[in-house]
Design a protein that fits this description.
homodimer; 6-stranded antiparallel sheet; two-stranded antiparallel sheet; about 35% strand; DNA-binding
Chain lengths: ~240, ~240
DNA sequence: GCCGATTTGTCCGTATGTATC
DNA sequence: CGATACATACGGACAAATCGG
């Protein structure tokens, strides 16, 4: 897989930070030194560093340098800022994923579904209900709606493994952006049946609309998470007030 | 307040998108056209556009152009991807904020507090408990811990208005990055007392560590949100798998 | 299917501004 | 004040993807 130059530098620096090559609060080599190390232009270094800033790994300070603010204990989290499939998240955390397909149907978007998902009325969709286990504990109940035109020939077998893997590797659909909204909702009977929430009466709900590289929204998903295992992590950057 | 060139272009394009000057799914002018419009270099345009991409406003497609994917209905949310004070969020949504200071004390970080907040043991802190109202409804119960050295001479009066305003405008502390973790927790008696959760038995909790431009973590805050009014919005960009 | 025009993606070099020490 | 560091901005070159003829 060909990586771009700035991406290689980004990963190289990221690894060095994660393995503790730079101590917490220590300054990284200056841009000029990094230019020599990686034999590249200043723009390329700046691009790699700016990606680390968005990841919350480092902080740049004009006139001072680039400070490492990575704390390993905090950066381990299941749900992250990026777009990841359940399988990928599990693997990143070295855990064993399993997916059970509860329901696999083809439906047509009626007005109610259309308004909830954002698809146009009358659109042909796959509606899939899946239960995701981690280390044999049911954690997430997923309701997926996929555009039939884009996610062609989806099967329960694919849904049991990884739909994203199929979309990207077989259909060459490139997933680009995803708009997500997180809320807390009262549990329903279905939630209780599959997730066994104990004495919690609500759960964490992540709704997302995902776009492919043609700008088409091809997926709407509602993920209902067990509250005691839900943890969403985020790094925010302050925009100066004007 | 002086704005940089790319920031002006960013805001100009953002406004045009929000006011519907470009239709949903329509292509924006190409980079070369934008260069002529704003009389600048290509890098400057690219920087402005890339900020719009992170905001989930547009999508860039190699060989095609820049597509507007802004949907007004979705972009209105109280809690957002950036760092915002309660007062700023309220004003952005044209609502009336009010803050009640429940408790204002100075404490010294014992081992328990230190491990929860991430401050070193023995650090001098302000501990503030505040209740935030929107349109006279109690929505958020905040537990703030501020480093006494940085947030010097904080008073209950300041806490009732806006601590961030004081930090930035009076003390010239620049707020840079914030690491946040979102979870769902069981409610406590204090939550129930102030937030009146009805028949919900849990709430949305956002814990954050905020750093200033010297790389010092000067704030730890736990925000406990009424679940029925909590809504966190986010735009994610897929990183290609390697 | 090919070719050329258009458009975004990557990369380089340079100059100047601004903050820190 | 000068040296160092990051921030902004410009210009140019080539690659890769898309689209129309």
């Amino acid at each position: 897989m060909p990586k771009s130059k700035y991406d290689k530098i980004y990963h190289s620096l990221k690894t060095k930070i994660e393995t503790g090559e730079y101590a917490f609060q220590e300054l990284l080599p200056s841009e000029n030194q990094l230019i020599l190390t990686y034999d590249c232009s200043r723009n390329t270094i700046r691009r790699a560093v700016s990606a680390l800033v968005t990841d919350g790994y480092v902080q740049t300070m004009q006139g001072k340098g680039i400070r490492n603010i990575f704390q390993p204990a905090l950066q381990t989290s299941f749900t992250m800022g990026g777009i990841e499939s359940f399988k990928e998240s599990a693997m990143r955390n070295n855990q064993v994923p399993r997916t059970e397909v509860l329901c696999f149907t083809e439906i047509n978007a009626d007005p109610k579904i259309a308004s909830r998902t954002g698809f146009a009325i009358g659109t042909d969709l796959y509606y899939i209900q899946r239960l995701h286990y981690l280390n044999e504990k049911a954690l997430i109940l997923n309701h997926n709606y996929f555009l039939k035109d884009i996610a062609a020939n989806l099967t329960p077998e694919i849904a049991q493994n990884s739909i994203y893997e199929y979309l990207e590797q077989t259909l060459h659909v490139s997933i680009v952006t995803s708009k997500r909204v997180m809320t807390v909702e009262k549990m329903t009977e279905i939630d209780e049946k599959y997730l066994h929430l104990g004495n919690y009466n609500c759960l964490a709900v992540v709704s997302s609309q995902t776009y492919n590289s043609d700008g088409i929204m091809f997926e709407y998903t509602q993920s209902r998470h067990r509250p005691d295992y839900f943890r969403f992590q985020d790094n925010a950057v302050r925009k100066t007030i004007r």
